[in-house]
Structure formats: C-alpha cells, structure tokens
Design a protein that fits this description.
Chain B: Keywords: Amino-acid biosynthesis, Branched-chain amino acid biosynthesis, Transferase. Chain B: Dimer of large and small chains. Chain B: GO terms for molecular function: acetolactate synthase activity; acetolactate synthase regulator activity. The complex is a heterodimer of chains A (461) and B (168). Chain A is α/β, with parallel strands linked by helices and 461 residues long. Helices cover 34% and strands 13% of the residues of chain A. Chain A has 18 helices and 13 strands. In chain A, strand 5, helix 8 and strand 6 form a beta-alpha-beta unit. Chain A is globular. Chain B is built from four helices and nine strands; from the N terminus they run βαββαββαββαββ. In chain B, a hairpin with a 3-residue loop joins strand 6 and strand 7. Chain B is of the alpha+beta class. In chain B, 25% of the residues lie in helices and 42% in strands. Classes of the chains: A alpha/beta (461), B alpha+beta (168). Chains A and B meet through strand 1 of A and helix 1 and helix 2 of B.
Chain lengths: 461, 168
C-alpha cells in the first residue's frame, strides 16, 4: 500500500464516510463486502470504503469462504418508542397552525404514502427541504415548496407564524434555520429521525422520535385525531396567492423562465439534477417535483460539478426517463470529460446550462454584502458551449431570447440520440430572491434587492 | 477554566481492531475536546477493548458527542462516568531531586502516601504512586519544593462497582 495514487485512502476518508474497512486477509473478503453493503444501505445510509491492497485483489480464495458477520456495535432503532409517538400525536392533534417539514430521511425511508395520508387526514401544510423535494407532490394544494435562505416567501411566512413544526427526516440545517439559536421560538418542534445524533444538534426540540420515518408515521397515524386547521389552511392559501415566486418575462432572458418552461414541458416526470449555485436555487423554486427521487442535488455537501455526473447515473438507472441536468457554467466545467461517457453510452441527457458568465451565487453575495467589489467570479474565459458540444460529438442548442425558450427546449426534448447541451445565455446580473441573509432569522427575508446597504452576513457561506 | 469547559470521564467498550482509535479521536477533535488522557487495552474477551478517556470540553455538546461515539460501527458502548460513584485508579511514576539533607523528609512524605520507591541515585529518587488521580496530584504537589524532575502518569482507569458492567 501507499504507492503512486493508491495510498492512504482510508486515512483521508475517515471524516467523510460512514465506515471503512482495510482488508488484509483475502479470506475476510466475503464477510467484509457483506458488512459494507449492510452498513451502507441500512439506518442512515452512507458511503463505506473497502480498501483492497494489491495482494488481496490478486489472491485466490475458496468460493465456500463464509460471508457471515456480526456487528455488535451497529444497531438501528427502526420503530420509534410508543411513548414519544403518542406524545407527538397529541401535540399534532391539538395544534392549530402545524407544518410538516419533509427532508431527505423521508425520501430514503419511502414515506410518501404515509405523509400523504397524514396531510389529508389532518389538513396540515407541507414544506420540503432541498433534498426532500418530491417526497410530497409540489403541485399539491397544501405544499409550500422549500423554506429557508432561498425558499418561497409563503413557506417562510408560514414558518414564522406556525405553532408546531414536525421535521420528518430533516436536520434543521442552517440554510433553513438561519440562526438556529432563535429559530421560530413561537413554535413547538417534533423531530423524527433515524440518527440520534441529529436530535437537538442545532435546534432544541420538544419531542423526538428516533426511528425510520415510514414506520414511525405509520404508527403515528393511528393516534392522530383530526384537529381544527381550517383557518390555518385558508391563511396558507392566501399567502400562496399574495406572495408567489416571480420574475420578469420581458427583456433579457431569465434563468427562471428557462427552468420554469422545462418544468412545464416535462410535467413533473423528469429527473432533475443540479450543481450548486444560483441555478440550483432557481431549479429548487421553479422545477416542480412530483415524485420522490426526481430531484438530485448534493445538499449539505454543497459540491459543484455534481449535476452532470449525477445525471449520467440517473439516466443509466432509468433509461426510459427524461433526465435534465440543470447546471451552471462554473460547475459544469468541473466535470466536462464526462461528456465522453454520456456520448459513448448515447445517454439522452438534457444538459440545461444556465450560462450567466459568472460564478453567479458568489457574485450575488459580493454584490449584496460587499459593495459589488467582484473578485474571482467573472468567467470571461468560457468556451463557446455549442462548439464544445460539437467537439465531443454531442448535440448543441442555444437560446438567447425569451421568445425562443419553448421552441428550443422542445427541440432538445425531441432529440434522443445522445446527450445535448442547451446553452441558455441568461441575464448576467440577476440575483436569487427571496433571500434570508446567512445567519439571520426568517423574518429578515428580502423579497427583492433593498435600497439601503446590507450588513455583512453573520452565518456561514 | 470556563464554566462549561469541564473534565469528563468517558469509558468505551470497542472492537479490538486497527483504526478504532483514530475514529474515536476524530469525534473528540471535531467537537473541540482536548483529550487529557487515553488508556486502552484488550478486554477480558480479547475481541474487544476497553478505553478510558479523560477529556476537557463543552458540557453542552457532551451528550451529542456520546451519541456520535455510539454511532461508530466499532464502538459497542460509550458512557460518561464523571459524577458517578465508580472505582477509579491511576498509576504514576514521579522522579524527584534529592540530596543527603532532603532524602529522609522525602521518604517520610512518600511513606505517608504509601508510595513505592522504585529507583534511587545520588541526586534523584523515583516513586510509584497508585490511587485516585487527586492523590497523585497531592503527592506531586508535596514533592514540588524538592524539585520534581519528571512525572509519567498512566491516565485514569475506571471500573463500575458491584455487579454492574462498565461502560454499558
């Protein structure tokens, strides 16, 4: 071990994996591989690394070698405690302004039906985190979309006024909580999570249930008694009407327009992947997600260059589906060589390139909080992306005018012989709104660029 | 010392495997805990090890840190014992400067603490002390005026009283 590019992979990976193994004796291999899959797939799933030295990979082992294993230090509490489930049920039943917050944990556990049943029985509005998108259909009357830093105005307003928040596999991330120490003190909080470490980590909760979301919600349903949320639901509908997401359709082409049109044309059936940045937030706002696992983003890891490779995986796994990689001109260029893979495999991925010639989200922060002193964000060296597509033997489209959006996207959706790049040359200086400045509470939400100078944000980037 | 920065005694029962220590140490490091002492050795069943850690850090994050330790696949159990009545021992070797005049007094003091004299030279004496950590602190404080040259301590060991099993 430890030569050329192979060395020390375990040492570097400790902080970012769920578990790792170094196999020294080839006979251990069947058992270790079984353990690795078991750990990676159960509980709160996560990556597991199995480091195989060369002498192990080239060794011969007896096919009958036992793959059995025991993991005394690894147990999962799947069923929540009945006591806390009953407590949660009575809190939900008596709440007048409750909200369900659906996160990635709900998606992983496959709790869509259970959530729907509770929402419909109890008439509770739903918000979803970025990674919870699709677990509850965004077209539903009671869905408020994503809350938080770039969430919808009505989701944030509802959070500011609610009396109970039920997190189902969502970890009160700072993109949602803003300032965790004073996050919605008026509301009681319930947290359902399979990972005990997440309980009271950032936000102190009033009731916690450690268990698998699907199983917990299933037994919770039986204890719920229909409360009175009629006025609350009315208020939610009014907020949705009064503060819709909006952008100008005239003038220069807007990213929001391109994304919203793609969402409309694919009718909630596309699998959408994103990078990180402005395009990601606009995709979260304007790409309405109807089904679970139809919106793939790197979430808390915040890694650019994720969208296109993720689209390749999604298309390989779902050959019959439309896969749209919404990427920025910055992130897309981090994984350009993957174009060869997509071309070779003839994967009909639609690469929707939101091209504003900037690292737009960083430019937005420099604009809003640092007097527009721009540094390291101008991508003036960008290639001609249509020619770049041609260079890889991939189809290229370009859209520059609002009037052409539907036509060009339609043509791209009709092209299925391989990947295509849709180079959408959009307004360079557009900013994502609503915005809650980092580290501020949700009532500090900005709906548009304020006239007066903003303070430097307190929270992280 | 800051109000919330407290010394904590944590006892772990873990798989006796390579890499376990680094995973545990990373949890402490990530939460800003300073490890004061660390003792690990195979348990009675040698597929497992027992580890005693004494660490200083924020009391508020302790609960979270214990959950993170328990989440590690190789950790069977992790538990805090700071304010509990458990049997607690530590061993130390203390080397102290001496001369003809001070030798008798040093022997008297160390005798009172039931220290064992393990080495003696013209200018030094070395003692072995066992007991609670506070006893070791007291001995080394008493010997300070003669000139303590070196102190080597094992770190704190814990075992539960009666039938109860440690770190369960």
């Amino acid at each position: 071990m430890g030569y050329i590019s192979g060395g020390r992979c375990l040492r570097y990976s400790y902080p970012i994996v769920k578990h790792s193994f170094l196999v020294k004796d080839p006979k251990e291999l069947p058992s270790v591989i079984n353990q690795a899959f078991h750990i990676a797939n159960t509980g709160r799933p996560g990556p597991v690394i199995v480091d195989l030295p060369k002498d192990v990979t080239s060794a011969l082992i007896d096919v009958d070698t036992s793959g059995e294993f025991t993991l005394p230090g690894y147990s999962i509490r799947k069923e929540g405690s009945l006591e806390s489930i009953k407590e949660a049920a009575s809190m939900i039943s008596s709440a007048e302004k409750p909200i369900l917050m659906v996160g990635h944990g709900a998606v992983i556990s496959g709790a869509t039906q259970e959530i729907k049943a509770i929402v419909e029985k109890m008439q509770i509005p739903v918000i979803n985190t970025l990674l919870g998108k699709g677990c509850f259909p965004e077209s539903h009357d009671l869905n408020l979309g994503m809350p938080g830093m770039h969430g919808t105005a009505y989701a944030n307003m509802a959070l500011c006024d609610c009396d109970l928040i039920v997190s189902i596999g969502a970890r009160w991330d700072d993109r949602i909580a803003g300032s965790p120490s004073d996050f919605q003190p008026q509301a009681k909080k319930i947290h359902i999570d399979i990972d005990p470490v997440e309980i009271n980590k950032t936000v102190q909760v009033d009731c916690s249930i450690i268990g698998d979301a699907k199983s917990v919600l299933n037994s919770l349903y039986g204890f719920l008694e229909k409360g009175n949320t009629q006025r609350w639901v009315k208020q939610i509908r009014r907020l949705k009407r009064e503060y819709p997401l909006k952008y100008k359709k005239e003038g220069k082409l807007r990213a929001q327009h391109v994304i919203e049109e793609m969402s409309r044309l694919t009718e909630g059936n596309a699998i959408v992947t994103t990078d990180v940045g402005q395009h990601q937030m606009w995709a979260a706002q304007f790409f309405k997600t109807e089904h679970t696992r139809h919106f793939l983003s790197s979430g808390g890891a915040g890694t650019m260059g994720f969208g296109f490779p993720a689209a390749i995986g999604a298309q390989m796994a779902n050959p019959g589906k439309i896969v749209v990689a919404v990427v920025g001109d910055g992130g897309f260029q981090m994984t350009l060589p993957e174009l060869s893979t997509a071309v070779n495999e003839k994967l009909p991925i639609k690469i929707l390139l939101i091209n504003n010639n900037y690292l737009g989200m960083v430019r937005q922060w420099q604009h809003m909080f640092y007097d527009n002193r721009l540094s390291g964000v101008d991508l003036e060296g960008n290639p001609d992306f249509v020619k770049l597509a041609g260079a890889y033997g991939c189809k290229g489209f370009r859209v520059k005018r609002s009037a052409d959006v539907r036509k060009v996207l339609g043509a791209a959706l009709a092209y299925n012989d391989g990947p295509c790049i849709i180079d959408a040359e959009v307004e360079k200086y557009d900013n994502v709104f609503p915005m809650v400045p980092s580290g501020a509470s949700l009532d500090k939400m900005l709906l548009s660029m304020p006239r007066k100078k903003l303070e430097k944000p307190k929270g992280g980037t | 010392m800051n109000e919330t920065q407290k010394r904590h005694n944590i006892s772990l029962y873990v798989e006796n495997k390579p890499g376990v220590t680094i995973r545990i140490a990373l949890v402490f490091a990530r939460r800003g805990y300073n490890i004061e002492s660390f003792v690990g050795s195979p348990a009675q069943d040698d597929r497992y090890s027992r580890i005693n850690i004494e660490a200083t850090g924020d009391s508020q994050t302790l609960h979270l840190m214990l959950e993170q330790l328990n989440r590690l696949v190789d950790v069977i159990h992790a538990r805090e014992y700071s304010d509990e009545d458990v049997i607690q021992k530590e061993l130390a070797l203390i080397k102290v400067r001496c001369n003809n005049e001070s030798r008798t007094e040093i022997l008297q003091i160390t005798g009172a603490f039931k220290c064992r004299n393990v080495d003696i030279s013209d200018t030094t004496m070395t003692f072995q002390v066992t007991g609670k950590s506070s006893k070791i602190d007291a001995v080394s404080k008493m010997l300070d005026k003669f000139g303590v040259l070196e102190v080597v301590r094992t770190g704190k060991l814990l075992i539960a009283r009666g039938k109860e099993e440690t770190s369960w």
